[in-house]
């Protein structure tokens, strides 16, 4: 096992404090040889690759004042950031155990210990510390609230996360509203899975008070209305999503098909799809999916008409760039028209594949399917 950089820094900081704060002179007066007691022994532990014994020695030899507290906190953070969580926990627990620790310093050490526990997966201990800080320390309340929310989201404890938001988050804050909306939708998802449609209705009603035009809320209302057999209501929710959330339109295509085939018939469904194809705000993936569905429901001729109505100079340039071939004019006969349609549809498919599905604008995570919360970094609404 190599000697950790953090341990070298630990002794460097410890010695720096001793040399710069008067601690060295105090120790020299107690040590006729002029070297801080135990320092040579600690270096020997390092050279013999015994960093844990070196940490214990430094902790025991350094007197507690505000400068050494900062040193210990910095070292604990360094260990945690390097993934050496057990050592970070030892340092912070040692600090908290010191009776001479000031109140503010104790809260700071507690916050760091809670983060240590959280990174180690000891969430029960972390929650206990964060809740204590929320109640007792105004300076650490907001970071403790944020950490509690992280823990509850990781454990999918949505009701507990809502309680934290309702009790401590800033009322009316946009972030609070957005998180509340997602938490209520998560609860509604679980209720739908348990066939508790009445409970899901209540949860979505709460979500609507927070984010009435968010894509997830509108999408969930669409699903719930269809499951309750209210096709017309589902179609109204779909129209709201299409009008207010253009980049999420492809998420409702399956629900749209079910609603129209079950309630209004394939002709009306095809007409709605044609509107989506011809709308310039519709993304390439939706255009491809809609064209395939139109072909399946109404035939290729209807799909040709829809795509022909959309075709613009930009579309033609796209085809030329992606396929490196010449287009035949659509008015030279049925065969040429079909060729034009196939070529243009293939171009949209190529563009959709080039875009590569979805990626997180926060951490760069890539996915073939859409997630409301990024699996990579945990950010909400970050996939595009």
What does this structure look like?
The chain is mainly α and 384 residues long. It folds into 2 domains: 5-168, Tetratricopeptide repeat domain (Serine Threonine Protein Phosphatase 5, Tetratricopeptide repeat), CATH 1.25.40.10; 213-367, no CATH class. The chain contains 20 helices and 2 strands. It has helices at residues 5-20, 23-29, 39-47, 51-61, 66-81, 85-97, 103-120, 123-136, 141-154, 158-168, 174-193, 197-210, 215-227, 231-244, 253-264, 266-278, 284-298, 300-310, 313-323, 334-355; strands at 358-359, 366-367. Strands 1-2 form a two-stranded antiparallel sheet. A hairpin with a 6-residue loop joins strand 1 and strand 2. Helix 7 runs antiparallel to helix 8 (123-136) and helix 16 packs antiparallel against helix 17 (284-298). The relative contact order is 0.04. Mean pLDDT is 77; it is low at 15-35 and 319-334.
């Amino acid at each position: 096992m190599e000697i950790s950089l953090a341990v070298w820094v630990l002794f460097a900081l410890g010695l720096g404090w001793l040399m710069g704060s008067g601690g060295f002179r105090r120790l020299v007066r107690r040590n006729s040889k002029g070297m801080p007691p135990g320092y040579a022994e600690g270096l020997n532990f390092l050279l013999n690759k015994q960093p844990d014994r070196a940490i214990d020695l430094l902790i025991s030899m350094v007197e507690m004042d505000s400068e050494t507290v900062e040193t210990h906190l910095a070292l604990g953070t360094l260990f945690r950031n390097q993934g050496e969580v057990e050592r970070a926990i030892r340092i912070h627990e040692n600090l908290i155990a010191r009776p001479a620790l000031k109140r503010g310093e104790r809260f700071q050490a507690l916050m760091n210990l809670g983060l240590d526990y959280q990174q180690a997966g000891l969430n029960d201990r972390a929650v206990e510390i964060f809740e204590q800080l929320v109640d007792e320390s105004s300076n650490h309340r907001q970071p403790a609230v944020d950490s509690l929310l992280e823990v509850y989201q990781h454990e999918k404890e949505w009701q507990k996360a809502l309680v934290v938001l309702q009790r401590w988050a800033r009322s009316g804050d946009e972030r609070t509203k957005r998180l509340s909306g997602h938490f209520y939708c998560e609860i509604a998802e679980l209720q739908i899975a348990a066939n508790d449609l009445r409970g899901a209705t209540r949860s979505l009603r709460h979500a609507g008070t927070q984010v009435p035009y968010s894509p997830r809320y509108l999408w969930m209302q669409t699903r719930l209305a269809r499951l309750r057999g209210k096709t017309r209501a589902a179609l109204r929710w779909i129209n709201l999503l299409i009008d207010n959330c253009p980049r999420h339109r492809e998420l409702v295509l399956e629900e749209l098909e079910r609603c129209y085939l079950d309630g209004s018939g394939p002709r009306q469904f095809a007409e709605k799809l044609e509107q989506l194809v011809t709308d310039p705000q519709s993304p390439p993936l939706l255009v491809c999916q809609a064209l395939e569905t139109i072909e399946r429901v109404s035939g290729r001729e209807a799909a040709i008409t829809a795509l022909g109505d959309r075709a613009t100079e930009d579309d033609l340039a796209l085809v030329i760039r992606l396929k490196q071939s010449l287009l035949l004019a659509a008015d030279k006969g049925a065969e040429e028209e079909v060729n034009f349609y196939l070529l243009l549809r293939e171009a949209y498919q190529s563009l959709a594949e080039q875009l590569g599905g979805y990626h997180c604008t926060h951490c760069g995570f890539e996915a073939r399917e859409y997630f409301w919360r990024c699996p990579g970094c945990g950010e909400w609404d970050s996939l595009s």
